[in-house]
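Sanity check. The docking grid for zinc ion depends on where the pocket ends up, so I'm generating a full predicted complex first rather than guessing from homology. Inputs follow.
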Amino acid sequence: MSRAAVHVGLDQPLEIRDDLEVAPPQRGELKVRIAASGVCHSDLSVQNGTIPLAPPMVLGHEGAGVVEEVGEGVVGFAPGDHVVLTFVPECGECYFCRRDQGFMCEKSAAQAAGGMLDGTTRMTSGGRPVGQMAMCGTFGEVTVVPAISAVKIDPDVPLEAAALLGCAVQTGVGAATHTANIRGGDTVAVLGCGGVGLNVIQGARIAGAERIIAVDMVDAKLDLARRFGATDVVNAARANPVAQVQSLTEERGADVAFEVIGLAATIEQSMQMTRRGGETVLVGVPRLDVVLNVNPAFAFIYTARTVKGCWYGSANVHREVPRLLELYRTGELMLDELISREIALDQVNEAFAAMKAGEVARSVIVF
Ligand code: APR
Ligand code: ZN
Ligand code: ZN
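Predicted complex below; grid placement will be based on this.
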């Protein structure tokens, strides 16, 4: 039996259940005892329907733990190995993986059904199947994942910090270092300084941006943003953020602007605060009914702007996790500082409330 936090219906609090049966790993799978899991806005987005995934489902897609059992045919993992789980599996063999776009791996398609690669789940509660978010389901003591969703790490890396590599860090840092084309000396703007946005900020610093303008509505987030590398801060609750960024850039706009919230209004703002010939990178996940407006098309062409979607920081996880851990070791990448609160599994609903209130960079569930 495993204890887990289960999404049971739209806008319902997650239910903490003690009775989850977790089946043994099948061929190509690993059973993992979760040590830590970050609480991400995308988990909340499942609960509130922004990301439509059917209940019941164990949420959580940003975790790290220890391999407990290895399924048939799995190479490169043994019980006792420490692993980071990734919410995009990377098979290394499909059309996209062969073109160095592991973040688009064809194997992730089955996620929409809430199951593993074959669409079925390894979890049941009272005999009924329970889905696993992103083939992970890290809001539970034990899970089974495809081996291609796990990356082995050194056992000396703290698992609370490693967990964040599974989503926020990979997505945010990757948005700046892989998706965007930041040049040394560039000015970037980052809208939204939550768990992901702070990582865009530190990624921009690592990529050599000279000025990093952080935009948020919460002063405490802007203070955090400075710690992660922001050189200027803009409080969007006090004045129009587009005008503020324009005035900080001689009315030109930022070379690269990142949207890391996922709202129609802020997506529009991020495009408006990008300079002519610059790049807007959309990282936040909007509701399905949000439409990108590039009217008039003439201006879009005339101003030679690029709007790029960013999925999972354009990462190839098997290469990226070791690179990020090396940056952590040398002190360039801040991971521990992202953890605002360590909580118990039962406090996950409070963690959602804290996230909505803008109180935390990350709450991390420690098992
Ligand atoms: N203007 C400026 N800042 C805003 C606004 C706004 N209109 N609305 C919200 N924010 C800020 C919040 O104050 C918060 O600091 O955006 C930040 C969002 O951070 P989190 O809630 O911690 O979300 P995070 O986990 O970082 O995810 C951000 O990326 O992966 C996706 O689904 C995820 O769409 C979400 C986005
Ligand atoms: Zn693939
Ligand atoms: Zn996430």
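Relevant for the grid: The chain has two domains: 2-166+334-366, 172-310.
Also worth noting: The pocket of zinc ion (ligand 2) is lined by residues 90-91, 93-94, 96-97, 105-107 (CB under 6 Å).
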